[in-house]
Amino acid sequence: MGMNMSSGSGGEPEPMMEMNMTPMIDVMLVLIIMFITTLPIANHAVNLNMPQNTNQPPPDVLPTVVKIDVDFDGTMTWNGEVVNRSQLESKLSEAAAMSPQPEIHLQPNRLVSYKSVAAVMASAQSRGITKLGMIGNEQFLKN
Fold first, then answer.
1. How many other CB atoms sit within 10 Å of the CB of residue 96?
2. In angstroms, rounded to a whole number, what is the distance separating the alpha carbons of residues 103 and 106?
3. Which of 34, 76, 78, 105 is the most exposed place for a label (fewest CB within 10 A)?
C-alpha cells in the first residue's frame, strides 16, 4: 500500500512551476548591507574660523561697540537709529575701514525670520567685519 503524492493522474511527478525566491532574497539582503556599509557618513558641519590663542595682553583701549537690532518685521536699527539695507551696508563699510574695528553686536528678535538675520550677517562678512557677535541668545531657550 503506497501513497501517491503527485497531483496528476500519471505516475510521474509534475515539475514545480513556482520560482524559489529564497536565494534571490538572500542576495538582495547582502547587497543592501554592502551598500549601507560603504555609504559615506553625512557630515553636517559648519566651518568656522575660531579665534587663535595668541597669549597677548588685552588692548589698553576698549573697542567701541555698535549694536544692530533686527525687529520681528525685519526692521534694522544701528545703535537705536532705524536704517534700511543700503544704509546698513554703508555703515558696515565705514566700520570695517576703522582701525581698530568696532565690535558689532547683533541682536535679533525672537520672532524675526532667519532670512533677515542671515542677510545682516552676510552684509557684515562681505564688507570685511571681523568682530561680529550674537547677543540676546537666552531668549531662544525653551522653557
1. 18
2. 10
3. 34
CA distance 77 to 82: 4
- Alpha-helical runs (H) found in the chain: 22-38, 85-97, 114-127
Rounded CA separation 69/66 (Å) = 10
Report pTM. Answer: 0.58
We find that the CATH architecture of domain 65-140 is: 2-Layer Sandwich (3.30)
For the chain, domain boundaries: 65-140
* pLDDT exceeds cutoff 70 at 62: yes
CA–CA dist 112, 109 (Å, integer):
5
In the block, residue with C-alpha cell 550677517:
121
Judge whether residue 16 has pLDDT over 90. Answer: no
Place of cell 537705536: 80
